[in-house]
Amino acid sequence: MKIRKRIVPAALALSVLSVGLVTFSEPLNADAAGHKVVAVTKNEQVARITKVKPLNTMTLQVTFNQPLAAADIDPNNLEVIKKDFNFNGNLEIVNVPRLMTGSTSTYIVPVTFQEDDFIYRLSYKEQPNRIFEGTDEKVLVRNVAQVTDDTFTLESLQEDGVVDYANIIEAYRGGREDLAFSLDRQNRDASGKRFDVISSLRDRYVTVKTSEGEEFVANYVPFTQAADGKQAPQFRLPAGQTLKQGVTYRVYSQWAEIDVKSFVAKKIEPFTLQSAKAIDSKSFELQLTNDPQTDLLAGRSVELRGNDGSTLQAQYRYSSRKGAVGVFDIANGGTLKAGVSYTVTPLNNWATATNVVLQGK
């Protein structure tokens, strides 16, 4: 490792020289000069990376010479934006860049896992490469905890110097209220405390091993990593599987260093559905008998069977829960039919329901 780290400055210097190489040629004619001016002007309009700083194995902090255009940070354009960031070493971004609170052009950029000491080259929109050294540093997670019979959380705490990116990015600042704050260039808060950053957990997973010798993957439940003011993202077992009471589960991750990584599964009763009320032809409110106190409806679905023989599926609208009530949206372009009564059945047994009927409107 020491040998490679000595090489880094030389590699960086070589990159600078190659980018800044000056050549001399015959004077351009007027037409060629005009094309060159247009090319330079166009080039100046494209944001240019000035600094790349790896924060941990799945997170980069990238500074540009100017703010990125709205289209270049729009989640709806993710697949296009992925192509704008061109890495070597099979690295790629997994979600859109997010502007850090208090900054004009420094972004949190989540990536696939880096290799320690690997020399990466990053080109943004075909601009000259920026070079940085990869890291396999993991984010500190305090513990794991079971929350339902098929879901557990990985909790990190700010007192340990770990912050979820939702609390330090401009896009979410308004909705985070007193949870939002800013970090300086060294990722320190106003008191001088330094923080590591948990970036987007989109498409992330953890590996679970049991005391019975089983091994499986649990996937991140979208939009839960900073829900309800906590830093406790949810991870869910494959569909149809449940945690077995009395069995010890041990959680491993390529991105998290988990302090207390095991738990003994206990019996947790499923939720009970109480009632359903249509909002319009494409959505409805579903009420539980008790407030789950946190967004445990995330990723849940129900089936609707109409008295006319039709069948629909509906999915929970992320972050819509208010107390014991959550909003569900009809999936796959379906609609509720006026005058049709639908019997509501939870999929994969996450809840029980007895004669819960939704009236179409």
Explained architecture:
By secondary structure, the protein is mainly β. It has 3 domains: 124 residues, no CATH class; 126 residues, no CATH class; 89 residues, Immunoglobulin-like. It is 12% helix and 34% strand. It contains 4 helices and 25 strands. Strands 16-8-9-14-13-12-15-17 form an 8-stranded mixed beta sheet, with no helix packed on it. The radius of gyration is 25 Å and the shape is globular.
Shape: globular
How far apart lie the N and C ends?
66 Å
What is the helical fraction, as a range of percent? 10-25%
Number of helices: 4
Strand order of the largest sheet: 16-8-9-14-13-12-15-17
Please count the beta strands (DSSP E, at least 2 residues each): 25
Q: What's the order of the H and E elements?
A: HHEEHEEEEEEEEHEEEEEEEEEEEEEEE
Largest sheet: 8 strands, mixed
- Rg (CA only): 25 Å
Strand content: 25-35%
The residue-averaged pLDDT reads 90
Low-pLDDT sequence parts: 1-43
Furnish the topology, listing elements before pairings:
Elements (H helix, E strand, L loop, with lengths): L1 H18 L10 H16 L3 E8 L2 E6 L13 H7 E3 L10 E2 L6 E5 L8 E6 L5 E4 L5 E8 L4 E5 L6 E3 L8 H4 L19 E3 L6 E6 L4 E6 L13 E3 L11 E5 L3 E5 L1 E3 L6 E8 L4 E6 L12 E6 L4 E6 L8 E6 L10 E6 L4 E2 L4 E3 L2
Parallel strand pairs: 8-16, 10-11, 18-24
Antiparallel strand pairs: 1-2, 2-5, 3-6, 4-5, 6-7, 8-9, 9-14, 12-13, 12-15, 13-14, 15-17, 18-19, 19-22, 20-21, 20-23, 21-22, 23-25
